[in-house]
Write a structure and sequence with these properties.
Helix content: 40-55%
Subcellular location: Cytoplasm
Family: Belongs to the WhiB family.
Number of domains: 1
Shape: globular
Function: Acts as a transcriptional regulator. Probably redox-responsive. The apo- but not holo-form probably binds DNA.
Largest sheet: none
Number of helices: 4
Strand content: under 5%
Cofactor: [4Fe-4S] cluster
Structural class: mainly alpha
Protein name: Transcriptional regulator WhiB
């Protein structure tokens, strides 16, 4: 009999926090970037996006959402893709050392 691989059910996200997000109404390209973007332009764009995130009242909720999914692209909660991967690993190590099996 073949084994069936089961996915862990993720809780349905609550989107209410997005109504209060500082990025609401901003151009999505600022947070996700265009195809073929070169590094100098990306650095400038990400600094601008992170400045908006820095003033956001729901930054923690946004970051928690992105880490729990995981969102692979864009700036979420003030962190880019690489920064979120590092944060995800940090949270997993912290949870493992505390004996907890939670990421977010």
């Amino acid at each position: 009999m073949s084994q069936v691989r089961r996915q862990t059910a993720r809780p349905r996200p609550s989107w209410g926090w997005q109504d209060d997000a500082a990025c609401r109404g901003e151009d999505l390209v600022l947070f996700f970037g265009p195809d073929g973007e070169r590094q100098p332009e990306r650095d400038i764009r990400e600094r601008k996006a992170k400045a908006i995130c820095g003033q956001c009242p729901v930054r923690a909720e946004c970051l928690d959402y992105a880490l729990s999914r995981p969102e692979k692209y864009g700036t979420w909660g003030g962190l880019n893709e690489d920064e979120r991967a590092s944060e995800r690993r940090r949270r997993m190590r912290r949870a493992a050392s505390a004996g907890i099996s939670a990421v977010a």
